[in-house]
What does this fold into?
Amino acid sequence: MNWIWVVLILFWTGGFAWLADTARTALRNRHQRRMELMEAQKAERLAVEAAHKPPQPICGCTHHLAKHDKSGRCHERVEVPTAWDENKKPLRFEPGQCNCQQYVGPQPLSQVYADELTDLA
Ligand SMILES: [Zn+2]
Ligand SMILES: [Zn+2]
It folds into this structure.
């Protein structure tokens, strides 16, 4: 009956470790696949949401179109650098006005109202 012990010991040491390792690897791979799938679904959802959103009327000066008057002049307050260090990095700022003149971003699409289709018949 000696061989049973040999098999048992072999199983408990090498075999069990191998089994546990295989199971761990399989679980990790599955987890990774799940994460990748979730990431892909999230990206897809974000793309769909972005496709449904109207384009934001953002000007080339990064300010919203609403900050511009009829002649295209931007009224947003900005920080104007007044001092620079030797690496041309601004050190001090003064409040000033954005000197943007023109809107160059995407034109916002006008909303068209349509009655919901109702089946009268
Ligand atoms: Zn602007
Ligand atoms: Zn601006």
Q: What stands out?
A: The pocket of zinc ion (ligand 1) is lined by residues 59, 61, 63, 68, 74, 100 (CB under 6 Å).
